[in-house]
Amino acid sequence: MDFDLSEEQQLLKDQARKFLADQCPPAEVRRVFEGEESFHPDVWRGIAELGWLGTAVPEEYGGVGAGYMELCVLAEELGRALAPVPFSSTAYLAAEAISLSGSEEQQRKYLPRFAMGELIGTLALAEGPGMVTAASLETRYADGKLSGHKLPVPDGDVANIAIVAACDQGVPGERISLFIVSLVANGVDRQTIETLDPGRGHARIDLDNAAAEPLGRPGEGLEIIDRVFDRAAVMFAFEQLGGAQRALEMARDYALERFAFGRPVGSFQAIKHKLADMYVATELARSNCYYGAWALSVDASELPVAAATARLSAIKANHLCTKENIQIHGGMGFTWEFDCHLYYRRAKLLALTLGGEPEWQDRLIDRLRRQRPNAEQAAQ
Amino acid sequence: MNFDDTLEEAEFRSRARKWLDENVPSDWRGRTTTPADIVEFIREWQARKADGGWACIGWPKTYDGQGATPMEEAIWGQEEGELATVSSFPIMIGVGMAGPMLMVHGSDAQKKKYLPPMLRAEKIWCQLFSEPGCGSDLAAARTRAVRDGDGWIVTGQKVWTSFAHFADQAILLARTDPTVPKHKGLSFFIVDMKAPGVEVRPIRQMSGDAEFNEVYLTDVRIPDEDRVGDVGAGWRVAMTVLMHERSGVAGADPFGFDNLLEQMENLPMGATPAIENEAVRARLADFYVRISGLEKTNLRTLSALSRGEQPGSEASIGKLVLAEQLVEQTSLALDVQGMAGIMTDESLAPAGGVHQQGYLRDLCMRIAGGTDEILRNTIAERVLGLPPDLRIDKKVAFEELPVSGTVRD
Q: In chain B, helix, strand, coil percent, each to 5?
């Protein structure tokens, strides 16, 4: 039984934490959060130089080929540092979509450039409020061109290319297909939008006969996105875990140094019990995340259940820890000046990216039902 | 990451499995319906294990164990749990807690006298710790032990004693000096449960069952050679006992989640099964996430054991999560039954009323073996490093402390 990080993975984690503590301390996060830029170019360059973007990209496509466990280790640290970079959009979404469904030629064309940090990628799915379904998408593809709008698109204002889901008029039944679109080409208009978390850029993208290159089998867009989302869910869960862990530590440290009624507030059981519950939620999430990472790294048949479980567990832990971190800080926790709200904002951003908790609870139950013994007979 | 045994672990597992395959009595299921049956079966099973060298494998070889590693104990637990699924709960106070305590604090004569029959379950042990006035605050025990020549005379009342009516011996925490602060005035004894003055009465629980007992001690005489540790050092000995009061590494799905899922699948709620109901799904998803989190946390604990390390602090969350989980799952199981969920008649209630029974029983888990509140304190203080609560009872003579039912300004 070896259900833990290896020594090498632990070393990678320590190195990543040190790099981010040096290059991406809270003051640098705030430069993006409070400034005009949508991401931090120096941190992004540093991450690219360290090869993090190619962690799970196979060597034949210009990556390091280390694997998904390693990518998850990095994700936890990025989440802990609230890193304001388009890492997830590029590595978890765009690169994964092309790895899973791209032609050999497409993989050769894009993956090395993602791995080097030369190209920022993203996935453009949502078209406004509500859950995405085949019927809800209005973006249309015909004759090599895309028209419609996408909102919100993570890192859409800085990405070079986007994977766009659209109704494919070339497929019987007009089902959903995926397309690669250059976001600097004619027919693409994009505007940065304000969100709960200005530490991560988002955009509205309008497409008006924009040139598009088909990706994956026509009509199977949503199936591919499901698979991409399962994989991304695990990596996002590690970012959420990192945020939860950091919020727990901030709250614990403050409870030790803040005095009230002549004693540290951390000596009151009302505060201790909150912190204990935060610890429990974080440890449950860590265990579920590790299992998700294992399933992802060996492409196990358990992945769909493991990914949904990791995501839901991490959403819960991050929500609880970032919320109670503010409560334990009292009035100071509610100020702009303290960093508590940065974690609280990021928690919701990450909980909604890929679809919110109710959607994933539904997925989890559907998948558990399918796993039951005799489930297939029952369905017949 | 991988979930496989090491070569040594695999070899140990196959040896354990082979012995179990050859020795587990095939008819145990039919023989273990009442608590008395279970105790009788466990005595027989434990003796057979002892003959084969498989009883208390974690005990040192000096005391007829195998000196097995914690990982080997965990593997044995998994294998034995799969085949001989009768809980060894009735002997856990003895082999799991009193035995290891005696190895640390007992005299040579005590070890020689008590360990061998304990290992074979010839003698069953119970624990006389909690009292009507002290549960979480165990050091406030009021049962008195007064010196009398070459022995002690003990008087008091103990509660929540499982298997007291089957027990031959007990470990006892009693106050020998009320004039000093409470932790310093306690001493630790071994009690013969058949001695004059020991009276066991069942406690009727809120469920109507009686799984625990009160034990009245009236002028019970204990020879001084049955005192463990120095006079006044009882708290330290009791701490050693409580250190061993851990649930250990639980097996896969001890929660019955699969059953719950099955029930939600089969029980109609309107035109569709309960599992199609949005509110039910949300609660089920929450439950699964916590159960899965606990199972995988156990895997992390096993990994530490497998590496020969102490389990990490994550091992401390188990009972806290499990207890609340049981209570909530049972509650949901009743909720989906609608109005009929109130029926306890076994012939009328779904699943023979098992969930209704659980509704009245499971709450015990949040209190027994460390309340949820004490466990949260422990996590906060030992894991997160928060300061202990302000205490008014540590420096005052025990007899000066306020107690329940007295009013002081």
A: 50, 15, 35
pLDDT tens by residue, A127-170? 999 889 999 999 999 999 999 999 999 999 999 999 999 999 99
- Which residue(s) pair with B170 in the sheet? B126, B191
Tokens 């050769």 locate to A108
Asked if A109 is an interface residue toward chain B (Cβ–Cβ < 8 A), one would say: no
Q: Is B308 on the interface with A (CB under 8 A)?
A: no
* β-pair type (A161-168, A140-142): parallel
Task: Give the Cα separation of A249 and B376 in Å (integer).
Answer: 16
List the structure tokens of A208. 């008006």
> Is B225 one of the annotated active-site residues of the chain?
no
- B187 neighbors B232 (Cβ within 8 angstroms): yes
Domains observed in chain A: 7-119 (1.10.540.10), 122-219 (2.40.110.10), 222-372 (1.20.140.10)
Rounded (5°) CA angle A48-A159-A233? 75
Please report how many Cα atoms fall inside a 13 Å half-sphere around the Cα of residue B369, on the Cβ side.
Answer: 20
The encoded tokens of residue B378 equal 């422990």
Model ipTM value = 0.95
* Contact across the interface for A372 and B261, Cβ inside 8 Å: yes
Put simply, whether A361 touches B (Cβ < 8 Å) is: yes
A369 in contact with B at a CB cutoff of 8 Å? yes
For residues B386 and A266, is the Cβ–Cβ distance under 8 A? yes
Q: What is the pLDDT of residues A165-215, one digit of tens each?
A: 999 999 998 899 999 999 999 999 999 999 999 999 999 999 999 999 999
* Contact indicator for A290, A304 with CB cutoff of 8 Å: no
**H helices within chain A, ranges in order?**
7-23, 26-34, 41-49, 68-81, 87, 95-101, 104-116, 221-257, 269-297, 303-329, 340-352, 357-371, 375-379
| Residues of B (351-380) whose Cβ lies below 8 Å from A | 373, 375-377, 379-380
Q: What is the chain B residue with the closest CA to A251?
A: B384
- Residue B294 and residue A284: Cβ atoms within 8 Å? yes
Q: What is the DSSP letter of A184?
A: T
Q: Does A231 touch chain B (CB under 8 A)?
A: no
Residues A245 and A322: their CA atoms lie apart, in Å, by 9
A355 contacts in B (CB within 8 Å)? none
Contacts of residue B247, defined as CB under 8 A and 6 or more positions apart, other chains included, come to B318, B319, B322, B369
Cβ pair B380:A275 closer than 8 A: yes
Euclidean distance between CA atoms A51 and A48, whole angstroms: 5
Distance from CA of B317 to the nearest CA of A (A): 6
| In chain B, % of residues over pLDDT 70 | 96
Among chain B residues, CA nearest to A297: B1
A83 contact partners, CB below 8 Å, separation of at least 6: A20, A24, A29, A40, A43, A47
